[in-house]
Automatic annotation (TrEMBL), chains A, B:
Gene Ontology MF terms: aminopeptidase activity; metal ion binding; metalloexopeptidase activity
UniProt similarity note: Belongs to the peptidase M24B family.
Cofactor(s) for this UniProt protein: Mn(2+)
Record keywords: Hydrolase, Manganese, Metal-binding
Domain Creatinase N-terminal: 4-137
Recorded superkingdom: Bacteria
Domain Peptidase M24: 144-347
UniProt protein name: Xaa-Pro dipeptidase
Length: 363, 363
C-alpha cells in the first residue's frame, strides 16, 4: 500500500485529480496484481484521497481479489465499452476530472484519443518518470527477490556449461537450461534465452537455432529468470576447446573492461562513468568500433528499466539501484564475447549479485 | 515484398507520404525481420515509391541484413537520438513529409509527441486497421505454419496428459510439456503455459503454481507454440479420477457449446454468430453468468489478433481467417472447464487445426 501512497502524495503535490496506470509492470509494483491484458484494458486508478480501483476484464475480478486487493475492482465484459466503465467508476469517486496523470511512454495514441473524446476538457500530466523513480531504488524485499533471481541465473549458466558438448545444438542447450532452472524455482525466463555459438556470437541479439557446437567455438549464454516478479540477466561466454590468441585477446579485454566498470560503481558516480570505464578499456585495446551498445540497463520488475547506463547519462548513482554491466566485443570474423553481471549500488560501493566465475572457462 | 507493396498501394490511394510501422509483429509481417526492441526504437518506413528502410539499434544492423533484407537499414547507437536518424533518413528519400501513417494502437503518446515536435506541420493517418486487414486473411505459406503450430499444440496436450499423476504439481507439468514441445520443433511458447487444477480452473487466466494434483481434480491446459513466427493456442480440460455429476454436466455443456460454434463457421457467418452459438447453449444449460469472455480471437503472428469474436462483432467471416473457439464455464464452487480449438474458415466451411480429442479424458 505504501507504493500507492507515493502516487497519492505526487497527485496532492501537483494538484492532479487522478492517475491512470496501465503499464502491467507498474500495476504489479503498485498493487501486486500481475496480468498480461493483451489488447484488453487493464489499469489502476489512484486519487488524491478517494479509494483507488483496478479496472480489468470481468474474468479477472476474482484473481484481483484473490491476491488480497481490498479496494475497488471494476470488471467489464468483452462486449462492454471498457472506457465507459472507467468513466463511471471515476465519476463515482470524484465530481470533476480536470487533470489526469498517465504513462505517456506506455499508453497508445489510440487510447489517448479515446480519453480525449470522452473528457474533452481534460488535461494530461506525464507520470512515467515519477513511477520509474520509485522503482529505481529497491527495498530489502525487492533485493531479496533480485538476489534469488541472480542465484538462479548463476545456476542456469552452470547447467549450460555442463551441457556443452561437440555436436549439441544451441536449442538443445536452451531447453536443458530452462528446464533445470524452472525445476529449481524460477517462475519463468525473463526473456528468450540466448545460447549462440561460433561466429553467431558476433550478433548481440542473436537467436539460437539448430547450429551444432564445434570444437574451437565460443558459446555465449545470455539469460535471466523471474523470481517472485523480479528479473535477473546474466551473460557468460565459454570456450569449447583451446581458444586462439585472437579469441583470447577479445575475451580478456571484455573481462578487464567489465571489471573496470564494476570498480567505479558507488553512490555519486555518474551513470555515464560506468559506461565510459569499460568503453575506454575496449577502445584502448583497439576494439572501440566493435562495442555498439550501452554498458547496461536497470533491472527489477522489468528486465529493462531505469537507469539506462549510456555514455551520455549524467544521472548520479544512488544506494539501492540495481543494473546490469555488460560490455561486449563483436568481431564477425573472429567471435563475439559479452560478460554481464547484475550489480547493486551499496552504501559505499557495489554488490555483484551474479557470481558465476568470469575467468575464461575452457571445456 | 508483396506485403510492402500492399502498404505502398494504400499510401498511393490515400495520398499519404509515408508509413512508420513500429509494431514488431507488423514489422515481421512486412519485412520478415523479427526483433524485440524493448524501449529502443525499431521501425520500418515505407514510401509510395522510394525505397523503404528499417531503423534499428546499430547492433542489429547485421541481423537485418542476414535475413535477406535488401533495402535500406539505418542503425543508431544508444547515445544517438534515434528520431534524428529517422528524420534524416526520411529526408534523404522524400522532400516533404506532410502526412504520415502510423499505428495508433501501438505507438505511445510519448513517441507521438516527439514526432509532433520534430515535424510541427505533420498530419497523421491511422494504419492499424489496414495492416490488421492484410493479416486477417492467411495465405498458404502462413497456413502451413499455423497447421504445424497446431500439431505441436496437440502434441503438447498429449504430453501433458501423460504427465498427470496424483501429487505432481502444476509447474512440474508445465516444465515437462514445454521441454517436450521445444524438442519437437517449437521455437517457443506463444504465451505463458497454463496448467491449473482443482478449483483453480475457475480462473480463466489462472497461474500455475506448486499445487499438487489430487484425485477428483479437473486439470486445465491452455497453451500454444510459435512455429516459424506463427502461433497456436489450445485448451483442453482433463479429469483425474471419476468426475462428479456436476463436473460432468459442466464439461458436456462446454463441449456441446464449442461444437455449436464450430458448426456455424463458414464464409458469410458474422463473427458474433460464432459467439452466440456457444453462448446460447451455455445459457440454456443455466450457466450463462459463468461464461465471462468472448468466444475467441484471431490467431497468426500475434497470439491475439483480428478478428475478435465477441457477441457484438458484425464482421462477416471470410475464407482464410484463422481464430480460436474457446467457450468456458467457470464455477468457483465446482470447477472451471474450457475447450479451445484453432479453426480456419475454408471456402465452404471450417477446418479445425487442433485435433486433440474432446471427449472427456479420464485418467
Amino acid at each position: 500500500m505504501s507504493n500507492i501512497k507515493k502516487v497519492q502524495d505526487f497527485l496532492i503535490e501537483h494538484a492532479i485529480d487522478a492517475a491512470l496506470i496501465t503499464n502491467p509492470d507498474n500495476i504489479f509494483y503498485l498493487t501486486n496484481f500481475r496480468s498480461e491484458p493483451h489488447e484488453r484494458l487493464l489499469g489502476v486508478v489512484i486519487f488524491k484521497e478517494e479509494e483507488p480501483f483496478i479496472i480489468c476484464p470481468a474474468m479477472e475480478v476474482a484473481d484481483v481479489k484473490a491476491i488480497g486487493w481490498s479496494h475497488g475492482v471494476v470488471g467489464y465484459k468483452d462486449t462492454d465499452n471498457a472506457f465507459e466503465f472507467l468513466d463511471n467508476a471515476i465519476q463515482e469517486r470524484i465530481s470533476e476530472l480536470t487533470l489526469l496523470a498517465i504513462e505517456k511512454e506506455h499508453i497508445t495514441v489510440d487510447r489517448f484519443e479515446i480519453l480525449q473524446e470522452r473528457f474533452p476538457a481534460l488535461q494530461f500530466a506525464k507520470l512515467d518518470g515519477e513511477i520509474a523513480n520509485y522503482r529505481l531504488i529497491k527495498n530489502e524485499t525487492e533485493l531479496d527477490c533480485l538476489r534469488k533471481a541472480a542465484e538462479l541465473a548463476d545456476y542456469a549458466i552452470e547447467v549450460g556449461c555442463n551441457e556443452i558438448k561437440e555436436g549439441k545444438t544451441e536449442l538443445e542447450i536452451v531447453q536443458a537450461v530452462e528446464q533445470a532452472v524452472k525445476q529449481k524455482g524460477a517462475e519463468k525466463m525473463s526473456f528468450d534465452t540466448i545460447v549462440i555459438s561460433g561466429k553467431k556470437t558476433a550478433s548481440p541479439h542473436g537467436i539460437p537455432g539448430d547450429r551444432a557446437i564445434k570444437n574451437g567455438d565460443f558459446i555465449l549464454f545470455d539469460l535471466g529468470v523471474v523470481y517472485k516478479g523480479y528479473c535477473s540477466d546474466i551473460t557468460r561466454t565459454i570456450a569449447l576447446g583451446e581458444p586462439t590468441d585472437e579469441q583470447l585477446k577479445i575475451y580478456e579485454t571484455v573481462k578487464k573492461a567489465q571489471q573496470a566498470s564494476i570498480d567505479v560503481v558507488r553512490p555519486g558516480t555518474l551513470a555515464k562513468e560506468v559506461d565510459l570505464a569499460a568503453r575506454s578499456v575496449i577502445e584502448e585495446a583497439g576494439y572501440g568500433e566493435l562495442f555498439p551498445h550501452r554498458i547496461g540497463h536497470g533491472l527489477g520488475i522489468s528486465v529493462h528499466e531505469y537507469p539506462s547506463l549510456t555514455a551520455a547519462n549524467e544521472l548520479p548513482l544512488e544506494e539501492g539501484m540495481v543494473f546490469t554491466i555488460e560490455p561486449g566485443i563483436y568481431d564477425p570474423t573472429i567471435t563475439g564475447v559479452r560478460i554481464e553481471d547484475d550489480v547493486l549500488v551499496t552504501k559505499d560501493g557495489v554488490e555483484v549479485l551474479t557470481k558465476f566465475p568470469k575467468d575464461l572457462k575452457i571445456i
